[in-house]
Amino acid sequence: MTEYGIRRLAMGVSALCLAGAALVVVAAWRFDVAPPAPPAPAASPKAPPPRQATAAPELTRAILANDVFGLTPLPDQQPKAKQPLKPAEIDMELAGTVIAADGRHAAAFLRDKGNKSQKAYAVGATVKDARIKSIGKNFVILERQGREEILTMKP
């Protein structure tokens, strides 16, 4: 089938879909009837009792007391207090960073203090004896010997 034939077929299918949608709208409009009138209330000797307002707070307290939704962390899952990262002990200085929304395309420009050469590094790259764990705005987090260290940009 040629490109012209495919276009012609697509236009025909589109026209059929549009005609079908118009038919549905017309049928719905044509057979639109008023909703039935509500039945007349029957004479009842007694009205239903009003709802108790105290049931909801009691139920809420019961749910929270039993931790139904798992809001309270378990003792072994308590959040640990974050200790501030110590400055990196590496003979490199941070010249600049380029960050990305997803973090995978971030880059850090590190300058060797000894020979003043500068190179771009990505997350996961090895610098001297450290590995770049993450790159942020004006800082790089390095992992050395299982510990995290931070390398910040000097003004």
From TrEMBL:
It comes from the Bacteria. Keywords: Cell inner membrane, Cell membrane, Membrane, Protein transport, Transmembrane, Transmembrane helix, Transport. Pfam families: T2SSC (PF11356). Residues 21-152 form the Type II secretion system protein GspC N-terminal domain. One of its GO terms (biological process) is protein transport. InterPro entries: T2SS_GspC_N (IPR024961). It is found in: Cell inner membrane. Its main location: membrane. One of its GO terms (cellular component) is plasma membrane. This is Type II secretion system protein GspC N-terminal domain-containing protein.
